[in-house]
């Protein structure tokens, strides 16, 4: 399954939107940007809830630009979730299947399967009003995925949740995405959420995509001032070009004169220099070797969260540990043996959880 959007355009009195995007099978593209930049309107144009003035949308090679919403095979999760309050959890999930004419027995089996994936077995007959915020989010996503859509669109579905619950729901969403090969566009203005969920991020500003890249590239190597500022990747300063050499380009800024390595372009009308976060650091002393103990482990995976890089390793006998790493640290392949150094001076006791 693929999604190709070319020059999809809508003009309003104070803003115009023009969208160009291509998504591959199973890819999650996060459409990020400040409030009012046109993210939600872009989703509505793709879903057919707003009619575009020009441009094309091709789903798996088929032009669906002029089809009504119900014939596009696109599932949209709204920001307010739009669950039906008068229907049970099971009937909410099965609603799209009912509209498609799927037989009752098959609908029931699909609902049970989705609830199993959601870790909500036995919730079929519960009223929606009895659910917690996180449970409602999961049911809304399950309803969208139950119909096996060609394209999945989500408009800030986690925005009403508190921060700890949002982190949990993000991981559950990633697990749910494994059940679908449909390309997905996830709208958010939360840069951490964008980094966690997106295979790629498309940054939108004033109705246009201004920059696209992996979450790691967007935080470490932004190509635009908009990208650097939105993702908090570092400091942007106006500068003046004062010289060039084979080693780099000499610039003068309010903080001093520097040499910028070659490899990035600048605007001759307004050159800007970008100072990444990890280009600035404080000198620190080194611990003595006798304060460390060595642990042997296998590298499992990396979790890139924009401003943080976490590495997950497994130590015998199957204990998983997570440790922080520098954003530019080399990432070993999964299964690679690694050596950990544990600073024993930082160990401490904690009280056990109160048993109920």
Would you summarize the structure shown here?
The protein is of the alpha+beta class and 356 residues long. The chain has 8 helices and 18 strands. The strands form 4 sheets. The chain has a 6-stranded mixed sheet, with helices on both faces. A 4-stranded antiparallel sheet has the order 2-1-4-5, covered by helices on one side.
Overview of this protein structure:
The structure is a single chain. Helix 2 packs across helix 3 and helix 4 (133-146) runs parallel beside helix 5. It is built from 8 helices and 18 strands. The chain has helices spanning 39-47, 89-99, 104-117, 133-146, 163-177, 191-197, 215-220, 225-230, and strands spanning 3-11, 16-23, 28-32, 54-59, 62-63, 74-77, 151-155, 184-188, 200-205, 208-213, 234-245, 248-253, 256-261, 272-276, 292-304, 309-315, 319-325, 337-343. The protein folds into 3 domains: 3-216, P-loop containing nucleotide triphosphate hydrolases (Rossmann fold); 234-279, no CATH class; 289-346, Nucleic acid-binding proteins (OB fold (Dihydrolipoamide Acetyltransferase, E2P)), CATH 2.40.50.140. Strand 12 and strand 13 (256-261) form a beta hairpin. 31% of the residues are buried. Mean pLDDT is 85; it is low at 282-287. The protein is an alpha+beta fold and 356 residues long.
Strand content: 25-35%
Q: How many domains, in number, for the residues?
A: 3
- Give the low-pLDDT segments: 282-287
* Percent helix: 10-25%
Task: Look at the structure and give the CATH class of the largest domain.
Answer: Alpha Beta
Distance between the termini: 49 Å
Using only CA atoms, what is the Rg? Answer: 24 Å
Q: Strands of the biggest beta sheet: in what spatial order? A: 6-7-8-3-9-10
**What string gives the helices and strands in order?**
EEEHEEEHHHEHEHEEHHEEEEEEEE
> Which secondary-structure class do the elements indicate?
alpha+beta
Number of strands: 18
Overall shape: flat
